[in-house]
Amino acid sequence: MNIFRFYKDEFSKLLKDNNYECNYEKLSVDSPRQSSFGDLAFNAPLIFSSSLKKNPLDIGAEIADLIKNKFPEFESIEVAKPGFVNLRLKKTFWFNFLSSFQDDKGKLATEIKKINIEYVSANPTGPLHVGHCRGAVYGDVLANLLSFIGNNVTKEYYINDYGNQIHMFAKSVYARLLEIKENIKFPLDQGLYPGDYLKDIAHNLIQKNAIKDLSDYELIKDDIGTMAMREAMVMIKSDLLSLGIKHDLFVSEKELVGKDLVAKTIKILDEKDCIYEGILPKPKGNDNEEWEERNQLLFKSTKFGDDVDRALKKSDGTWTYFANDVAYHAYKLERKFDKYINVLGADHSGYLKRLKACMDALSDFKTDFECKVCQLVKLFKSGEPYKMSKRAGDFITAKELVEAVGVDAVRFMMIYRSNDSQLDFDFDLVTEKTKENPVFYVQYASARIHSILRKVELKKDDFDKKNLNLLDSEAEIDLIKKLSLWSKCLELSSNNLEPHRIPYYLYDLASSFHSYWNLGKENNDFRIIENENMALVHARVFLLEKVLMVIKSGLSILGVSAPDSM
RNA sequence: GCGCCCGUAGCUCAGCUGGAUAGAGCAUCGGUUUUCUAAACCGAGGGUCGCAUGUUCGAAUCAUGCCGGGCGCACCA
Predict the structure, then answer these.
(1) Cα–Cα distance measured from residue A198 to residue A173, given in angstroms and rounded to the nearest whole number
(2) Which of A51, A319, A384, A499 is the most buried (most CB within 10 A)?
(3) How many secondary structure helices (H) and strands (E) does chain A include?
(4) How far apart are CA A40 and CA A59, in angstroms?
(5) Is residue A174 helix, strand or coil?
(6) How many angstroms separate the first and last alpha carbons of chain A?
(7) A186: which DSSP letter?
(8) Which neighbouring-strand residues pair with A115?
(9) What's the longest Cα–Cα distance across chain A?
């Protein structure tokens, strides 16, 4: 239960019942910045003062009285400058709260939504590299989060297995085949993909005896392309698996084109008057000498907020990548989701407006569609920027990263920053496995609690929830209050698609726990289980079980393990 | 030139979507292990929230304009 939301609703109702005619939308109940102000801060006096033309402090006094009469659970209610009603809950409230505390799994979504989330969608011409990891983890955690709170989520991957790059890919594999079977040196000057993984693919094809006659490339290029693509996708799926990611659905661009879905979709747009033949202006400030004026089939994306209209057909009459993507998104709409999320890398941010435009056009603005962009990851090694060269094919793969630092660290660090900010990822820092790495701090809390639970033997029947009122130390109440912030964290994270709040919350919770734990070093009364008062031990174990439950839930959303021991 | 993102402590970043005296980690300095896991805890110092103007009772948060950094701006995919 989110107590802030609960009391906001309750207080609003109370004020409405007492005929306050004001702007209820701006009301908020939040935790005050300083704990000395209390547990809840209600801003009604500030919001109401202008429309009621009264001093906020006077309004505050009225509201404080109303609340006092209706809600006995408050220990103190104070009006504070510049216009807050600060409320402190009685300890009995917190004991009751703890006694019925749940981790909110499957409970927070106000209505169960069918959500589609597309992420990764990396080109199937090679393994995942470090650059893909962030969007991959972000999308995956978002999917976990949204389904954790009760939604029905489909995780989707769009395979760009069509077009020019695929020809180059097939050619590259062909060159590797020639290299292996006929000792012809791999040419480095033809813009082919140089990476070693192509050798693996070629070896696999040979092993499966898939290509028998290499003499005429034209005859076998389609077969090579198809089979090599299949091999590459096996590779990518295995890379994703090493990151703990499993998509529900892989949609092939090639199949969409094959089904003639593009032409059908463009026709729908044409009926909506969003298509025309025209000439695009030359991009400014971009000295592209090859640019020339040409008449093309265009989509009126400017009608939907884009900067320029977008080409749908190339001059040779074939569809552009974007046209295929429009068809893909029409295919998404066909499957009728309540919400669509696209996770893109920073290098595709220029693509965002036209995607939104095509969704708006196809659905007549009736779609809940959101694109989230993950900014770049900068790699460091011992504090120095770490350069990778894509041309030489010596980029670091996702798999190598996971092997080097472990999947837990990769996932935690990739989600530990807002997706809008660039991320510094230092190999050595994460490999060191010291306290500098926050994932271990949180996991350590899990291990410590497990250790307690292992050592203590309690009969559940002996436990009476009334004994929770023995948890009346500051540290214990503080822990209970931290637990109460969990559903708020979930709500903010999911409503704003900001999963980075979860590791921050977990860190905070772990920190409160570690503080609590260490009290036992100074004062024997605070030793959790080495205590003669068994009722108190029961109560403390109950509290720690709840803390562990949240840590486990939180880490499971992140896709990070919660170890029993370390 | 245009679009998107960022600018908060020495460094890396949070900041509850407009509230009260701006918070963490690292780094620096000082303390805590006979005792449930010291991979931990406690304490100290450190800030003109890039700059300016505006909106507001109130701005790190919103608007506009600068300055600085990143990414992008094809008939590629």
Answers:
(1) 6
(2) A499
(3) 20, 15
(4) 17
(5) helix
(6) 32
(7) P
(8) A153, A339
(9) 92
User: Is-contact A133 A411, C-beta < 8 A?
Assistant: no
| CA atom of A53 to C1′ atom of B25, Å | 46
Instruction: Protein contacts on strand B: list nucleotides below 7 Å from a Cβ.
Output: 1-7, 12-17, 19-27, 32, 35-42, 57, 69-77
Q: What is the pLDDT of residues A273-302, one digit of tens each?
A: 999 999 988 877 656 667 778 889 999 999
Token pair listed for A287: 């000295």
Q: What is the pLDDT of residues A495-551, one digit of tens each?
A: 999 999 999 999 999 999 999 999 998 888 999 998 888 999 999 999 999 999 999
A319 pairs with which residues across the strands?
A313
- Between CA A38 and CA A323 the distance in angstroms is 57
Report angle CA A139, A143, A149 to the nearest 5 degrees. 145
Residue A267: which residues within 8 A CB-CB, separation 6 or more? Answer: none
Nearest to A277 by CA among A302, A295, A300: A295
From the centroid of its chain, how far is CA A313?
34
For residue A32, is the peptide bond before it cis, meaning its omega torsion is within 30 degrees of 0? Answer: no
ipTM associated with this complex: 0.96
Separation in Å: B5 C1' and A376 CA: 10
CB proximity list for A411: less than 8 A, separation 6 or greater: A137, A141, A243, A244, A558, A559, A560
Q: In whole angstroms, give the CA distance from residue A212 to residue A114.
A: 47
The separation, in Å, between residue A417 CA and nucleotide B10 C1' comes to 21
Q: Which nucleotide is nearest to A447 (CA to C1')?
A: B37
Residue A455's nearest nucleotide, by CA–C1', is B36
Torsion of CA A135, A342, A263, A273, to 10 degrees: -140
- Which nt is closest to the CA of A378, judged by C1'? B70
Q: Look at the block and give the residue holding tokens 């941010």.
A: A349
Report residue A355 CA to chain centroid gap.
Answer: 20
